[in-house]
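Input sequence (111 aa), recorded before submission:
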Amino acid sequence: MPSLSHALSFMNLFYVLVVLGAIIMFANMIIAASLRKRIPGGFVGKWLAIMWVFMFFFFLAEAGAFFFISSLNSIDLSYFLIGTVLFFGSIFVAVVNRFIFHLIRELEIHK
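Predicted structure, token format:
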């Protein structure tokens, strides 16, 4: 019988967090796709499409982490993959901030 400390290891926590993150990101992709259909285009439509691409990237990164991180033989490759995901996460936050800024500005103009 496995001990509690083994069940609560960082590796198991990693897998739980990655699976939950992938589920949340997939739900976000569905929501963003439904919103994209309701927006005719323009700046908001363009940036929502860009955000969807980043969401898809994160979903693939999380799915890849779940299935492939334990089989990586090179710790350098693991660090590279984690660094890449974090880097694009920073860009994603910048895209979201730009999107929200312009969305609010467009809403203020149309009052």
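Checked by second reader. The chain has one domain: 4-109.
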